[in-house]
Specification:
Number of strands: 2
Strand order of the largest sheet: 1-2
Distance between the termini: 75 Å
Strand content: under 5%
Number of helices: 23
Shape: globular
Structural class: mainly alpha
Helix content: over 70%
């Protein structure tokens, strides 16, 4: 009775928190000073929701042991392999930069295991699928408002939509991130339309459900077309073809009418989108030609970096610095405006180039766990879940959506946990769920998750201070210097803290303030790259009489930014 009660509490808590995150926190638009993805304040809100979900689920399971599936054990082993290279990364500041990524990995693994132990009912799983579809529909409406009526958006979204049409689209303020999220919701809707297990018994309600799904699918595919995102187009075509194939044949005497929705609604949505586009598909693809060349260049250079250090890697957290100097320190330097790149636009290559062969083994083990989960004993239900995952999986090979949007990571975890529970239910195995003897584990997870929630909440509050600092440096410089480094978003905090010492010097005239700026500035450019920091550091070093070091910095800046006239 205790086990059943605690499990019910956990599933209800997870259900409520997922509702809050997917229908609320994901769509909050807050003021910012530019950037997209992880530079925005909204992801911190979503992370607060995720860590709070972990804390509540773990607390509800305090009187039960945690069960691990075979796939979960493989994924845990993969996470351990992916973490190990952190310990031999050559720079403490590089390690600091890699910590949030690894923390997000382990938070996702923890949530995955807890969702496995929540024992969602069929009704609850269907409800969560509707949540994902509803979240994608809300982003669709937000995106259409950004394209056609920005004045309807809140101030933060309105500014982004006006400054960068077709690019700063949606709350994510990045066209491809928005497109892959919408495509995920479209895949879920295609599944809800075609699978007879979701049919309502009440005839009138079932008709309204079909109409709502058909309309939503048309709207989502229309928006995917209008966003002019190649990632979104690819994902939309793949899920359309996949779900048409999965539900092409039926053993039912009367074919389920939702199968016609799968075949017709996307086609209608694409046709409407094409009719509303300002240009043509060919013109949109031509507009992306420069981006394609950049991606090819990035992949080529990343492969060359891997070839130099295939076993040890370049060091976790060091890709921005390593890539910038790799393409600059040549007999004939290469320059395509890539000196501030933070990711090679391919997830497998990212882990390999930084973590070497150990990280590659972790990624391959993670891939093997996924293949075994979905394809070892494939069913129509599991293939449908894989189809819902494909938009994000495809996007991960082209960009880095999981770092830009924790909502994407959350959806991946949810769908994986549903597939794993289905796998265990359909193939009972005596060793499938082995009870852990560590009954204190849920309590420890609760404490860690609460600490994580506090750190993320503190980072969110400090992020607002940094936004005010960039708008009014004189007024907020002293507050920035008192902020605590939570190891989340350290790049921005340390940069603004360094600049605050310059602002403070302008008020005090104390040369010690400039010395402090130089110390922080030197540390900063040893991990990241920014021409403004180089420019300020060169000027301050010259002012302090460190002419030799200033000339060295100028020479380095000339190689990194050959087109910047400040360093010529």
């Amino acid at each position: 009775m205790t086990h059943r009660l605690s499990t019910t509490k956990a599933s209800r808590w997870a259900e409520g928190m997922l509702t809050l995150i997917l229908l609320g926190l994901t769509h909050v638009a807050l003021s910012n000073t530019g950037g997209s993805g992880a530079d925005l304040p909204e992801p911190l809100l979503v992370w607060c929701g995720i860590t709070a979900t972990i804390a509540g689920c773990a607390w509800a399971m305090a009187r039960q042991t945690i069960a691990l599936s075979f796939s979960a054990r493989l994924m845990l082993a993969a996470a351990i392999l992916l973490t190990l290279p952190l310990f031999w990364s050559p720079s403490p500041d590089w390690q600091r930069d890699a910590l949030p990524r690894l923390a997000g990995l382990w938070a996702g693994m923890t949530l995955y295991i807890l969702l496995l132990n929540c024992h969602f009912s069929a009704r609850q799983r269907q409800y969560v699928l509707w949540l994902i579809a509803a979240a994608a529909t809300l982003q669709t409406v937000y995106s259409l408002a950004g394209l056609w009526a920005p004045f309807l958006l809140p101030e933060a979204g309105r500014t982004a939509a006006m400054l960068s049409p077709h690019i700063g689209i949606g709350v994510f303020q990045q066209r491809n991130v928005t497109a892959s999220f919408i495509a995920t919701g479209a895949a879920v809707l295609l599944w809800l339309a075609a699978d007879s297990r979701f049919t309502l018994m009440h005839e009138a309600r079932e008709k309204r459900r079909r109409v709502a799904i058909f309309t939503a699918i048309v709207l989502l595919f229309m928006t995917l077309t209008l966003l002019e995102s190649r990632t979104g187009w690819l994902a939309g075509l793949v899920i359309w073809g996949m779900f048409s194939g999965i539900f092409f044949r039926t053993e039912e005497a009367v074919p389920h009418p939702g199968r016609w929705t799968v075949r017709c609604a996307p086609a209608l949505g694409i046709a409407v989108g094409l009719s509303l586009m300002n240009g043509t598909i060919a013109r949109a693809l031509q507009d992306h030609s420069d981006s394609t060349l950049d991606r090819v260049f990035i992949l080529q250079q990343t492969w060359q970096m891997i070839a130099l250090h295939p076993f040890s890697g370049w060091g976790y957290g060091g890709f921005p610095w390593s890539f910038a100097h790799f393409i600059a320190d040549r007999a004939q330097p290469l320059y395509l405006g890539m000196n501030e790149l933070t990711h090679p636009h391919n997830e497998l290559l990212f882990w390999w180039v930084e973590g070497g062969i150990v990280a590659l083994a972790g990624i391959l083990l993670l891939l093997a766990a996924g293949v075994m989960l979905f394809l070892r004993h494939p069913t129509r239900h599991k293939l449908a879940l894989l189809g819902c995952l494909l938009p994000v999986l495809l996007h991960m090979q082209l960009e880095y959506p999981l770092y830009q949007s924790p909502a994407h990571w959350l959806v991946v975890i949810i769908l994986l946990s549903f597939a794993d529970r289905l796998d265990a239910h359909e193939r009972p195995h005596p060793d499938m769920f082995r009870r852990s003897s560590l009954r204190l584990l849920p309590c420890a997870l609760t404490v860690l998750a609460l600490c994580g929630t506090g750190l993320v909440g503190l980072t969110f509050w400090q992020n607002q201070v940094l936004i005010h600092f960039q708008q009014s440096p004189q007024q907020y410089a002293s507050r920035v210097l008192r902020l605590y480094d939570t190891r989340i978003g350290s790049e921005r905090l340390l940069k603004d803290r360094a600049l605050s010492w310059i602002v403070r010097y302008q008020a005090s005239g104390n040369p010690d303030d400039l010395q402090r700026f130089c110390r922080l500035g030197r540390r900063w450019i040893a991990t990241w790259s920014d021409p403004d920091i180089y420019h300020n550091l060169i000027n301050v070093e010259q002012f302090l009489g460190n002419g030799t070091y200033a000339r060295q910095l100028r020479s380095e800046a000339q190689r990194l930014y050959p087109e910047d006239p400040r360093f010529s």
